[in-house]
Amino acid sequence: MMSITFLQDAVDYGIIGLLSVMSFMTLFFWIERLLFYRTIKLSDYTSKEKLEMDVTNHIHILSTFGSNAPYIGLLGTVWGIIITFYAMGQSGQIDVKTIMSSLALALKATAMGLVVAIPAVFFYNHLVRKIEKILMCWDINKQGKNDENTSF
Questions:
Q1: Is the pTM of this model over 0.85?
Q2: Does position 1 have pLDDT exceeding 70, yes or no?
Q3: What is the pLDDT of residue 146?
Q4: Do residues 91 and 19 touch, judged by C-beta distance below 8 A?
Q5: What is the pLDDT of residues 29-64, one digit of tens each?
Q6: 106 located within any domain
Q7: Any idea what DSSP says for residue 46?
Q8: Better pLDDT: 103 or 69
């Protein structure tokens, strides 16, 4: 049978580690997209579909992280609560201090999930608006109403 320490470490390093990686990737892809959007020259594109493919690249990652990070955090919390109850059952002792500190530590996974999800959703929505603006500018340019000073 697995030890309680191993299971607690799995929550701490597995779940929290995964959420930390997701947090880093969220920030990375948001910055990468913003830098890419600054370099776009609409005149380089002959079709709107190619432009749309280029500007929407990688934003699905932000959407996926934003929608799944809370569930991953919740999984860590549920796992932490199960470990707490299992340890209480094995020891046969009910110590309020131990229970409350263990449950508080279990909740850190949910908090971390929210810390990842909230910025990911914000960044995703921010990029979607920028994409809409870029595509509208492409349409305007193709209609012959060129605006060379458009910034994304």
A1: no
A2: no
A3: 57
A4: no
A5: 999 999 999 999 999 999 999 999 999 999 999 999
A6: yes
A7: S
A8: 69
Measured between alpha carbons, how far is 14 from 144 in angstroms, rounded to an integer?
54
Contacts of 73 (CB under 8 A, 6+ apart): 15, 19, 109, 110, 111, 112, 113, 114, 116, 117
Beta carbons within 8 Å of 94's beta carbon, 6+ residues apart: 88
Structural domain boundaries enclosing 129 = 4-142
35 within 8 A of 58, measured Cβ to Cβ: no
Is 151 a domain residue?
Answer: no
- The answer to whether 152 and 37 have CB atoms below 8 angstroms apart is yes
Helix axes 16-39, 96-142, angle to 10 degrees: 20
Q: Which DSSP state fits 146?
A: -
Query: What total of structural domains would you count in the chain?
Result: 1
